[in-house]
Amino acid sequence: MARKRSLDEGPVIAGQILDDAARLFYNKGYDQASIRDLASLSGMSPSTIYHHFRNKQEIAFQVIRRFMVNFNEALLPVVRDSSRPVLDRLDDTVRLHLEISDQRLPELLRMQSFRDILADDQEREIARLARDYHDGVKDLIRQGCARGELTVSDATLVTMGILDMLNGVRAWFDHAGKLSLAEVVRAYTDIVRRTVGAPTSGAE
Amino acid sequence: MARKRSLDEGPVIAGQILDDAARLFYNKGYDQASIRDLASLSGMSPSTIYHHFRNKQEIAFQVIRRFMVNFNEALLPVVRDSSRPVLDRLDDTVRLHLEISDQRLPELLRMQSFRDILADDQEREIARLARDYHDGVKDLIRQGCARGELTVSDATLVTMGILDMLNGVRAWFDHAGKLSLAEVVRAYTDIVRRTVGAPTSGAE
Fold it and tell me: In this complex, how many residue pairs, one in chain A and one in chain B, have their CB atoms less than 8 Å apart?
């Protein structure tokens, strides 16, 4: 597919480079992937890529950062919408967390090895974005407790447990497997409700 | 510290090499670590190391494999001991899982990137060991359901959720932080009991 490349399309091109880089890192591994591979995959010259990004590490950082910014943009308004019941927001959080992680798997699956290569300030930026989400979920659980809808002994640890459980799914979920993502979402919604002492859908 | 190196100490030396390699990979990263670094850290010659292991990849595989064999040796007898109450076994599983993961952190924390470098047959062997443990926990949960002590809607998914939650702890637990490992164990014991519909310790 041919791509337009006029000068005022900088952000579009940068976004395309990140899309292609995410797939390349996913398929080939970060260490094995070169700017030359990326240029070849993107149908761009290496100099176009270097026009947008300093080096491969910068690209990896921007792939992770963009994902987490988008993730928080989708999740935080749901988590923080105090006009809605706590349990509805919690259910939506579970669903959106699993759906977005699934849709954008290439940007995520190798994030642990990405972190090995981030500079300190890049790692702090990623940690800050992760903390914003963590804190949003923790505050939601605390609101539920304050309203008498949830009970937890330690909101921080329950939040860690829930997020680690949700983050774990992408490593084993298989679209070719027995369960659909919707079925996993339904089961995890009930598991998460249980961890915060909320009633489940009763489908047991 | 000086180390004895007689010929009949082969397994001891191999074990020392794996200990040192685990620390080296943990501190320096697998890609950056060389056999020369390992030789220097171990106080052994590269040829001694090559006498025991084919190459760096073989060492990484054996680090992971040895951990998982030891982990299963510690956990499976507890998980499978049908003479004990289901909940006692589940509580011990949570505690041992967290304690062993903590004690042997260097062998674990970079396991995801290790997996990227394993050969197919090595990856199958590691997957088999992980499955033995997963199946043991799942069977325990099913026994609890059959005895009316637990209720879950899907034992496989609850098991995945519990194990991902327990595996997540090592990435964020900090001995210098506010909580001791014993406190995390206590909180996670209750969270895990909730996921399987069992009564908690009531300390809420």
Answer: 88
User: What gap in Å lies between CA B94 and CA B86, rounded to an integer?
Assistant: 13
CA of residue A36 relative to chain centroid, distance:
27
pLDDT tens, chain B, 204 aa long:
445 555 567 788 999 999 999 999 888 888 889 999 999 999 999 999 999 999 999 999 999 999 999 999 999 999 999 999 999 999 999 999 999 999 998 888 665 566 678 899 999 999 999 999 999 999 999 999 999 999 999 999 999 999 999 999 998 999 999 999 999 999 999 999 999 999 887 544
Contact at CB, B164 and A160, closer than 8 angstroms: no
CA of B3 to nearest chain A CA: how many angstroms apart?
Answer: 33
DSSP state of B198: -
CA gap B19, B22 in Å, rounded: 5
What is the C-alpha to C-alpha distance for residues B180 and A143, in angstroms, rounded to an integer? 26
Rg (CA), chain A: 19
CB B198 within 8 A of CB B189: no
Q: Do B168 and A169 touch (CB under 8 A)?
A: no
Per DSSP, B149 falls in state S
For residue range A81-93, what is the model confidence (pLDDT) as tens digits?
999 999 999 999 9
Contacts of B200 in chain A (CB under 8 A): 153
Residue among B157, B171, B188 whose CB faces A161 most closely: B188
Chain A residues with CB-CB distance to B134 below 8 A: none
CA distance B83 to B81: 5
Check A153 against B203: CB less than 8 A apart. yes
Asked if A17 and A52 count as a contact pair (C-beta separation under 8 A), the reply is yes
Chain A residue with CA closest to B25: the answer is A116
